[in-house]
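From the pipeline queue, job 12 of 40. The input is one protein chain; the requested action is below.

Action: predict structure.
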Amino acid sequence: MQINITNNEASAHVIPGLITSLGAGANQDIEVTRTQYDALVTWIAASALSIAIAKPTYQNVLYVNKAYAGDYDPAGTEEAPYLTIGAALTAIGAAAAGAGVWNSHLIYVMSNGTPYLENLTIPNGRKIVICAIGAVLIGDGATPTGEGDITFAVTAAGSFASGNPELILTSIADTYAGMASHVSTMGIIVGRDIIITSDTQNMALDICNTRVVGKIDTTGIGTGILYTTLKHAYIGGDFAELATTAKIMNADHCNLHGDVFVNSYGRFDCVDFDGNITIITGTAPAIMPIGFYGCNIAATLTAPGEVLVDEVTRYLFWKNGGTLAGGAFFTTMSRLKDNVVDAVVTAADIGGGGTATTLVVQLNTMDGRPISSVREVMIYANDTQYIEDANANVTFSLATAGAIVASGAGWCLARTSATGAFACTLTNAVDETVWFNAKTAPYGVAVLAEACVVRGCLPDDATWA
């Protein structure tokens, strides 16, 4: 532990085993072991010298071990740790504001096989890391009805930290051996909820290698922004992020068991969502520029517009029976985007001896949304539904959406608009029914970047009478 030795004598003195010469009236900070400290106290008493020992009133790195039963009063040092996490937080809250690093604090919490039965209140305005050495349970995680809440209340008036106040929960551990029902290789188990409130002050919450049995409640956030990062975390309840300025910045290899409400631009990697996801925004569309990658979503995803996903997330979403709501639709940033399409054909009947009618073709993504690029497809006129037997009586002309690259009797190489739309005039002098379908251009395209594969087509027929 660290102590301060002051020489109140009129001459310099040797401090045996520690300081070769401590000048008259001088003092010096020094790290000592318990044995050295005991020997120093004994020497001062025997020498009758006016030499004083003082422990520092505060330090940035604090230690907590509820099993400590040593000879010294708990002081937050490695040799004399606090018995509760709350005592360490109280010491931090009582410390005067300093510059930069003096507002950043690290609390090491030792595992000893039994829970820390306490609720924690994080002092305002600080950057605090709570790091478990071994696996630590905060509160009664077996039945989360008692202790175990962590309250992180931030106000602008009391925030003197360099940068935004921040709470980091992490660990040098894997499993809390005594609470198997709440274990998923997590070092810290928060027995109940994390409750966050603020006014206009921004803040950050980082949860790593930690299991929260309850929810993360941010409904008390004011206009300040909460930046949340989750890494190897399990949240048992809702992420009740209803405040318009709260957001998840990143979630990596996590399980979010409850409903998630996010107003965010964030990246979700390998995250299991067991509950519903609601993306909140004041304007549409709610574009997530980084999005969901390798995520398992099993319920309802609600958003007012476009949501970015990869192919794995898209596949698992539909496989799990997921549903989109609120105007949400998927955009996939992958090699398959707009390269594998579905086609929907609409052909109008024409009567009264007329010869000209209209054809409309729409290319969609595999989840039914219009593509967002120009593509080329072959369109055929057929005498029989589902069979390619070109009808030479039909000609294609006068494109009103997209363009005709080339055409002939009963066929057309069509270029769509930037939204996958093509429309043109069909002409036929024979009274008959003709089927129209779109397919992959089998003999090449005019522009290679506009090539695509038509996965399936919903054909339609036009009758001339």
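Job complete. Residues 175-184, 282-288 have pLDDT under 50 and may be disordered.
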